Amino acid sequence: MSVSQFSAMSTTRSSSEAFVQYSSLSRFIEFGSRNRRSKKLLLTRTLNFRPLTTTSFCVKNVSSEPKANPNVKEPVVEEEASGSLNPYAPDAASITSSIKYHAEFTPSYSPDKFELPKAFFATAQSVRDTLIINWNSTYEYYERLNVKQAYYLSMEFLQGRALLNAIGNLGLTGAYAEALSKLGHSLENVAYKEPDAALGNGGLGRLASCFLDSLATLNYPAWGYGLRYKYGLFKQRITKDGQEEVAEDWLELGNPWEMVRNDVSYPVKFFGKVVSGSDGKKHWIGGEDIKAVAYDVPIPGYKTKTTINLRLWSTKVPSEDFDLSAFNAGDHTKAAEALSNAEKICYILYPGDESVEGKILRLKQQYTLCSASLQDIIARFERRSGANINWEEFPEKVAVQMNDTHPTLCIPELMRVLVDLKGLSWKEAWNITQRTVAYTNHTVLPEALEKWSFELMQKLLPRHVEIIEMIDEELINTIVLEYGTADPDLLEKKLKAMRILENFDLPATLADLFVKPKESNVVVRDDELETSEDDVESVDGEPQVEKEDTQEEEKIVEAIPKPPKLVRMANLCIVGGHAVNGVAEIHSEIVKNEVFNEFYKLWPEKFQNKTNGVTPRRWIRFCNPDLSKIITNWLRTEDWVTNTEKLAELRKFADNEDLQAQFRAAKRNNKMKVVSLIKEKTGYSVSPDALFDTQVKRIHEYKRQLLNILGIVYRYKKMKEMTAAERKAKYVPRVCIFGGKAFATYVQAKRIVKFITDVAATVNHDPDIGDLLKVVFVPDYNVSVAELLIPASELSEHISTAGMEASGTSNMKFAMNGCILIGTLDGANVEIREEVGDDNFFLFGARAHEIAGLRKERAEGKFVPDPCFEEVKKFVRTGVFGPYNYDELMGSLEGDEGFGRADYFLVGKDFPSYLECQEKVDEAYRDQKKWTRMSILNTAGSYKFSSDRTIHEYAREIWNIKPVELP
């Protein structure tokens, strides 16, 4: 659209009038604390707000609408009107003026065109105006009431696109659709121009974002804290060589949602040294100083005025740290060294840590998050407390939740601030810290339980290491007090398992308890006990052992390297906090009985379960409008969006043929969107009539994408051995969809990606197979892709080795959208199966309690692989999938022991069970009535897995906070 066409658009106000109105709005925002009646009047005059008394215009889906249920009287679904945030909301005409204003006066593009990218920015800035109003009101109200507030610290927040989510939560979808239509664009096309925020990678980050949505929707006073990554993890490209990583470009054109707070910045220090002052206090001096600057992203609740904050930290240095003399002398690199060191902290999510520099950078990231966030939290506490600051009240006003071990440094940092800067005693500070901080564990994998080099941490954070040493010493005293010294072996076992400092000598007071007599490893016969004078030398009359033998022994002792000294972050989390929770029932039991069993025996009251949940707003209401309308019509209410327990009522309609027909129609509409997505992203054409079988998640050996693709290879091999008629009779047509990123340095995961794409290239071009089997790897999987794939999927693979997945959240999203799961009894699969019913979940594989025994059996050489497993590996090695050498990949599934061998994740053990289960899938899919019934029951059974329920549990049982609804 040209600028002349854009300007000629019919609106209720001119641009100059809009400018005046928005100037008034700016004053309204700036002086938002004035009386509410005046604010409301100004808002009404400024933006032509009108009461929400009628149904707003909504954009209809381009797909055909499902048939209405003749047996149920359908209500008028007033999606916008029923959710007004206050008695006033902007109408389409006001929104049109608002968008035009931002296109002209806050431009990110040249003024001569109003094309889609510019339309997106102007629309987002228009939405942000409303969010700022609600954000300011929320913040002001929390300040005035001095409420207890929860702070959620996470290295990841995987938000996805924000536009549709924001206007949906505000109840303005119809109004914005109408406004954009007047301006020559569709809401869908405008929203598509928004890049996904590159602030996370997997379930950890998506969970954090779901939690923020629920916190705002439920009116809990809470904020999120994270880092503002410039390049995210990486953008994934799929080439002939497999996965290729390039820098993410999400910030290149700017981020219309964020608000930089130049007045909110805090110093963060690295390196230096610790000295004792004349006052007896410790002072951390010297080193490298940077500044963390706040960028705020408003998070709106659904149909509530509450808008909470995600505060992201960006790092820089003051301008005086730029060495102008060096620059003018031609040493440009040295001149910008301080700036570069600061900025790179927020360049990449999870920088590679194979090098020392990479490890230092990761630790800098974690400390920056903790230090800046705690300084901000403490400053807020002091401001709200006024002149009478009582630090004992800090845990009554502040709850800090550490999302996994990345924010562990909150514990020594809070201790440092309280003791060194605020003058509290160690005992006072330790009591406050333990009552404030809590820890969510997300893994049972040993390699994912963070351990940092003591030497590296001592170099980077010298004062924190001193504090950690003192915490470790206090823990030792607690363990000794609990178990006594009568049984040194038991005490040694406890200390080895529980200490924060690993591979450290015990304090001198305890060392004598564990001194064991030296045992000779030389067997001496009785007849050798008599020694002649020729065999020994005498020094001062004492016989001496021959020197050559002694020197040889010393050489042997010196050849054994000492294990590195480490700081165990998970142990520090448990010791320093008041609550530890797992994220699924089976995971929490493993945490208590295996991973942290010694801690559980000592402090059973600390350990809890908080099964993960996902927001039903993004994961049904907004991403699957067809299904949402069906649910609302059959339940005769839209309350299920915030009260998912109502979804269970769908069970009574599961056999209704009209509901089943509507479910199938909605699923097909969603599948058609994915057919277009696959064609766009990969070039492959797939049939919407095939079963859509999906596995999308991080590429990791324990998640067993390798099991899935080997099952597909076996299916392909068997198809090739049949006639066309036999193939058609035996197999249901399938489209097998993969997506996910392999970490850049994870060689085996990248081999799996390469293998999947090679299998796809062979199978998809085989004319004998046609539409009976297609394999697709969707590149650069993210939230926006998930919002298309999940509603369209009919079977979803959650096939991790039992006992290794903490929870999973994608399994919940798939179940909510009527997708049937195939999986092991792992993570939240266990609870999902209980809710949806055994008959509506395809179960296979070994159980969690069997895994250790199966690995032991393998190590002892007792495992006998199934012939079908040997057959499929042999087939891969024939080169049918191209010239790439897959010996290393197949070799990892062979042998009885060794690094990268012995099939640690039990692919071979579960392979025959998996194939048998897939045959049951084919059988069930042929009976579409049965399959649709299972699909409905999965949606009905997903009621338990809303993040709203999870947040209520955190708020009540860990944070002790209550909802605060704005007046």
From TrEMBL:
Origin superkingdom: Eukaryota
Protein name: Alpha-1,4 glucan phosphorylase
